[in-house]
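Help! Submission page says 'invalid entity' but I think these are all valid:
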Amino acid sequence: DIGMTQSPLSLPVTPGEAASISCRSSQSLLHSNGYNCLEWFLQKPGQSPQLLIYMGSNRASGVPDRFSGSGSGTDFTLKISRVEAEDVGVYYCMQALQTPYTFGQGTKLEIK
Amino acid sequence: QVQLQESGPRVVRPSETLSLSCIVSGGSISGYYWSWIRQPPGEALEWIAYISSSGSYIYNPSVESRVSISVDTSRNQFSLKVKSLTAADTAVYFCAREVRRPDGSGSYYGFLDYWGRGILVTVSS
C-alpha cells in the first residue's frame, strides 16, 4: 500500500492569514501520462468529506480560489491564501494512483 | 444535484454480517465507479472497495476476505456486505461516487466528487 503522511496534524490559524498543509507519499503519485493522482478533501465538523482538489492542483467545482494545490511525485501542498471561519475542519489527502486508495491521517485546522 | 444516501442497521452484533445500501438520486448510477469508505470514531478514512456500474470491482486487501460489493442499476443503488464483524468494524460508513474522465491518451483520471452523509455502525453485543 502507498503510505500517506500529512503535517502538521494540528493547525491553529488566525482568520485572514495563510495556511499550508503538507502531504507526502511513500512512492511517486505521478501517472505515466504526466498527472498526479492526488486529491484533497475537507471534512467539516459533522459532515462527510468534500472534494477540494484533484490531480494534485485542479480545484473542484465550486471551491473558492483561495484554495490551491501544488506539488508532484511524492511531495504535495495544500495552501489556503486567507483562512476564513468556514474553513475549519479536518483536511485529508488521498492517493488514487493504485488500489487500495489510501488517505493521510488528517490535519485539523482550527481558528485561533 | 446528485445525492447519495446510505442505509442499514445502526447496531450489529459481533460475528454477524453487516449489509449496507447506498441509493443514488439526481443522476444515473451508470458510467461511474462507486466506493465504500469508512471512518472509525476519531480516526482517519479507510477506503474499502469500489464497483463500476458494469459490475467490475476491487477490494482493499485488508478486508477482502470479509467483504462483498454489488450494484443494482435498475434500482440505482449499490451495496456492501461485511461479514464476521468485530468491534474494530465500528465506524461511520460512507458511500461515494468516483468520476473517471479520459485523458486523451487511452487512460483516465478520476476523483471522488460526491459523498453520502455517512451512517454510524456500531458493532456491539
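Support: the input was valid. A stray whitespace character was the problem, and the output above is from the cleaned input. The longest strand of chain B covers residues 91-102.
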